[in-house]
Design a protein that fits this description.
The protein contains 20 helices and 44 strands. By secondary structure, the protein is α+β, with helices and mostly antiparallel strands.
Length: 812
């Protein structure tokens, strides 16, 4: 069953019913001001930090679903009250449509001959979201309707806002000036920031107190002011400040009127604190309002946003016979990569924006998927991340985007974290050729007195692994590796010892074969980087350590038919045929093969065959098998989930990409692409009633074969799945991979394909690459020509002339 369709020409997903299986959302903003908006206009806004600069309020796990707050509009048409986006009034609409596009959302609704269209977007370089509202009379009679707007202010710190009622019910303050409602709660305290909501038309009333507008015992669906057809002109004094305008709209038959609402944020300079006692300085807000007061100005800003996305999405484009592949690669996957870059895992319909900031591991991986689009911002992000690293090479697992300080509550000791920094830096340099980043003086723990060149941070990341090895010579897992729920050092118990009599023993010696595979994969990239920069001695040392780790993996990490996942704190295998449950895990299979383990003796193929036999389902590859059916205290959180969900044998889409990459590396392009199609969103659209999440973006998790709701997704949008699946399809399957000296062409595709075309911008040059597959093979470049001249090998050279270059690739 489908609930909409792809409009590839306009780069939109068009939703044709408001009652999707779950709220299908979009993100507005690309720099500092961000908004989440659902297909019925639910969601919230914030500036930089979803926890510390929350602008509008939202209630999670709300009943009814997605009625926890939003930017709501109501029409009162002679006593008939309805909402253009269906919610919150939930009156039946004669026509409804939501178009989620690149950084904007358009929602339209029609009832009683009145059509209302609203375009929501955040203009470039602007800390505000625009709501362009068009009201049209489609009848042959005059219409006099009232248009009500509504947002509810959050009191800035989202956690404090939802917990500290005894204080916050006394702090809400607003100021109303003309058609602008200012939210100045804590302005006197912070003295430098406020929010506002304006409309570019005279208003016949306003409300800024929630109880006055909605009514003490009413809900968003039936606000008393809207049903009365008249605002109360209430001024909030504590309690719950809101912003609502009332605009009288007189329409002749066929007439249309347009209004511009602006929801914005201002952070004043210190010298701009206030105009006078308790009156905020409105100059910056007034300048923003003036800039977007006309429809022409708004349309111009929307066009600029579209051109911005034209430029970003032009960096990598495919033209193939598969429309679903084209829309994923050209539009939605790259769009999602940019959203994950902006927000990491902090704010979605599954992450509250309160519990998590920017992840060290997460953001370094997210960078892989967008570095080709905005390398300058990737460079800045790398320095931000490296600045939270600790002197021993470890890292804070998360940091707050507003302060860029490491999160002490989460701390470090996730022993995979340091390696991801190396991979991010390597990806950045390969994309840009900018080796100067290695010389940037970068602090540890944001202490400028402890700054060293970024290259030293990479060395400490590399050494953090070899300085933390366990009894088998494999890396210690620490609190966890990539799999946060595999907590093998959670409790130290002797075999047979009961939980009640547990006593900790010296040291935490659980080891991770997954980190070992990562070390071989990423450590070799570190060695190549050192070689490229002329640091031969460091390169030689790194190669020796990587070679030693590969031998250790094959000695202690090979189980006979697949790679072991780990050793627990008692030296017992995890992810082995010896285990009763959890015999095989996906992560070590993918990363060990990406780390070139078992490639020469057939063990890699054997491991991948085991993946297909034991982990594959029609909806993707499960994380492990068999699922845990009981709690294992020595394994930690992973066995607390019901079988088939999340880390307990759920389909974790993030690590599916590592298997795609591994299959491509061994030359099995059919299998690599088959796995790609099982989880790529566009391919899930036909069974949306099962999948439930948006059919245009990846979800973190899909319920596995042991689950009662097999195939149902959760945790959409903010997931490393986005970047890794873009890497899997663009670099490993389609085979266009940046290297230090050019673009490497090394496809691994289904044998049935005749070919495809790729347009790739690389270091300012434009490459138009045609791949031909006349012999219907999966891999192997037998001929490469560039601008009509044959090139030896499979590297497209860097011309540096900012011109177009035409390449033809023959597989055989």
């Amino acid at each position: 069953m489908q609930y909409g369709f792809f409009d590839d020409l306009n780069r939109e997903y068009v939703i044709t019913t408001p009652t999707t299986p779950y709220p299908w959302i979009n993100y507005l903003g690309s720099q500092e001001y961000f908004s989440l908006i659902s297909n019925t206009a639910g969601g919230y806004s914030f500036y930089k930090d979803a926890k510390l600069r929350r602008i509008t309020r939202f209630r999670y796990n709300n009943v009814p679903l997605d009625l926890g707050g939003g930017r709501y509009y109501y029409i009162n048409d002679g006593g008939d009250v309805w909402s253009p986006g269906w919610a919150p009034a939930k009156k039946e609409l004669e026509n409804y449509e939501c178009r989620h596009g690149m950084g904007y959302t358009k929602i339209s609704g029609e009832r009683g001959g009145v059509e209302t269209n609203i375009t929501f977007f955040v203009p470039l370089n602007t800390n505000a979201e625009v709501h362009k509202v068009i009201v049209k009379n489609k009848t042959n009679d005059n219409k006099k309707v009232k248009l009500f707007s509504f947002v509810e202010w959050c009191l800035w710190n989202a956690l404090d806002d939802m917990t500290n009622f005894q204080r916050n019910y006394n702090t809400g303050e607003v100021e109303v000036k003309g058609s602008v409602i200012y939210h100045k709660t804590e302005y006197k305290e912070r003295r430098n920031h406020y929010a506002f909501f304006s409309v570019n038309a005279p208003i016949c009333g306003f409300d800024s107190d929630r109880e006055s507008f909605i009514g003490t015992y009413n809900g968003f669906e039936n606000p008393q002011a809207v049903y009365a057809g008249q605002s109360n002109n209430s001024v909030a004094d504590g309690w719950h400040p809101i912003a609502s305008h009332c605009v009288e709209v007189d329409l002749e038959p066929g007439e249309t009127k347009e209004y511009i609402f602006l929801l914005g944020y201002v952070e004043n300079d210190l010298e701009d604190k206030w105009e006078s006692k308790n009156i905020i300085n409105k100059k910056k807000a007034e300048a923003m309002i003036e800039a977007f007061k006309t429809v022409d100005a708004v349309d111009k800003a929307l066009k600029e946003l579209s051109e911005y996305w034209d430029q970003l999405l032009s960096k990598y484009r495919i033209d193939s016979a598969d429309d679903k592949l084209n829309r994923m690669v050209n539009i939605w996957n790259q769009y999602q990569c940019m959203v994950t870059f902006n927000l990491s895992r902090s704010a979605s319909y599954f992450e509250s924006g309160i519990g998590r900031g920017m992840g060290f591991r997460d953001s370094n991986q997210d960078l892989l998927g967008f570095v080709h689009q905005i390398p300058d911002r990737a460079r800045e992000r790398i320095i931000d991340l490296a600045s939270t690293q600790l002197e021993d090479g470890g890292a804070y697992h998360q940091y707050q985007p507003l302060t860029k300080k490491g999160n002490d509550e989460i701390g470090g000791n996730f022993n995979d974290d340091p390696l991801w920094l190396i991979l991010a830096v390597v990806a950045y340099i390969k994309e840009t050729g900018d080796f100067s980043i290695l010389d940037v003086m970068t602090p540890f723990d944001n202490d400028e007195t402890k700054s060293t060149p970024l290259s030293d941070h990479l060395k400490r990341s590399f050494d953090h692994v070899i300085h933390n090895l366990g009894p088998h010579g494999l890396p210690l897992i620490g609190r966890a590796d990539w799999n946060d729920c595999l907590n093998l050092n959670c409790f130290s118990m002797e075999p047979g010892e009961s939980f009640q009599t547990t006593t900790s023993k010296d040291g935490k010696v659980a080891e991770s074969v997954m980190i070992a595979g990562m070390f071989c994969y990423i450590g070799e990239e570190y060695a190549k980087l050192m070689k490229k920069t002329g640091n031969d001695s460091e390169a030689d040392r790194a190669y020796l350590e990587v070679d030693k780790m590969r031998k250790t993996i094959m000695e202690h990490g090979w189980d006979g038919s697949w790679f072991v996942r780990a050793y627990d704190d008692f030296g017992r295998k995890v992810g082995s045929d010896d285990n009763e449950e959890g015999k095989i895990f996906i992560e070590s299979q993918g990363l060990c093969i990406m780390g070139n383990c078992g490639m020469e003796d057939g063990k890699a193929i054997k491991a991948l065959d085991a993946v297909e036999e034991r982990l594959a389902t029609k909806y993707g590859l499960v994380l492990q098998n068999p699922a845990f059916t009981k709690y294992y205290v020595e394994y930690g959180e992973i066995s607390t989930y019901p079988a088939g969900y999340k880390e307990n044998a759920g389909i974790f889409c993030h690590n599916n990409a590592w298997i795609m990459a591994a299959e491509a590396l061994v030359g099995r392009g059919d299998k690599a692409f088959d796995y790609y199609t099982r989880i790529a969103p566009a391919y899930t659209e036909e069974y949306s009633e099962i999948h439930r999440m948006e059919p245009y973006v990846y979800s973190q998790m899909v319920a596995g074969k042991d689950a009662k709701r097999h195939g149902e997704a959760k945790n959409s949008w903010l997931t490393g799945t986005a970047s890794w699946n873009f890497i899997a399809i663009s670099q490993y399957i389609l085979g266009i991979k940046p290297e230090y000296d050019g673009l490497q062409i090394d496809p691994s595709i289904p044998k049935s394909w005749d070919g495809y075309k790729i347009t790739r911008e690389f270091r300012g040059d434009i490459y138009e690459i045609t791949i031909k597959n006349p012999n219907h093979v999966s891999s192997g470049v037998v001929k490469l020509t560039v601008d009509g001249k044959e090139v030896e090998g499979n590297i497209l050279p860097i011309f540096g002339d900012k011109k177009k270059h035409v390449a033809e690739v023959i597989l055989g």
